[in-house]
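Hey all, quick one. A colleague (J.T.) asked me to put the fe (iii) ion job into the tracker so the inputs and the structure tokens live in one place instead of scattered across chat threads. No bug as far as I know, just bookkeeping. Sequence used:
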Amino acid sequence: MTSQIVEIDFIDWAQAHSRPEWTAAVEAGKVLYFPRLGFAVQPEEQALLREDTLAPKSRNVSLGADGVLKGAAGSAQDQQALAAMVGRFRQQALQLVDDLLPEYKGQLRVAPTSFRPKQVETRAQSVRADDQRMHVDAFPSRPSYGERLLRVFTNLNPHGVPRVWRVGEDFETIARRFLPQAKPYRLWQAKLLNAVHATKSLRSEYDHLMLQLHDLMKFDEQYQKNGTQVTVPFPPGSVWVCFSDQATHAVMSGQFMMEQTLYLPPGKEVDPQASPLAILTRLVGRPLVGVGAGTAR
Ligand code: SIN
Ligand code: FE
């Protein structure tokens, strides 16, 4: 396996720049890794790095574009400080992406920013929800129609604990391995899911196949154990960026991470032919989204 990790030696969020080979790497599903680009937690913010900043039953704290903080517990003062810290990361992540991937300028839609104070290795989860298993990101209720998930992560653990990921083979290799086992798309099922509001819009064949890959990967014990993969410990004070709908990944351990998702519309990549949508369309041999897709079934 050629290296799925590309190291970039930026030391300053405000002094990032772009290179065609970095854009090509992230569009090939690789992880761009910035070992020296830490997020600076201020001394008065250290006290926010506790698991109980999370409201009971929440998976993570999130800060909307409107500045509203969700999923947080603690005093009003704590919540204000948390919103400020997460907001600062948001600004830095957006600036980084603007400078690193200027080709996407004006195209990206910004999702809420998330702070994840839970310890990964003590989370009890169903197989399908278990991100300690290798997967590509795909969401059952939110059809994407090929819209991309570009994510910026930073580890802010105060005790030197890395966030340990596994990163696997490129998307096409995985798609070739698992597509033969995928259940066929049924338009009537997609319509039913939509009618009962299990999905926010009609699930396309593309979204169906992405979910099938996600599930088939997670349920395959052989693949989880023996699939080609590398373990990457992202230390505190580092940043990494990937298209998480394309980079095969799992998170094994760690605590205290922030993440910014940016949505890129389908076809707005520099090389749209490298995208999961293009790869799956080629492998299946018919359109998977849009007019005409799925109508024969
Ligand atoms: C994931 O997308 O699988 C989660 C990544 C992480 O929590 O580090
Ligand atoms: Fe994931």
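Adding what we noticed when we looked at it: The longest helix spans residues 76-100. Residues 5-284 form a domain with the Jelly Rolls fold (CATH 2.60.120).
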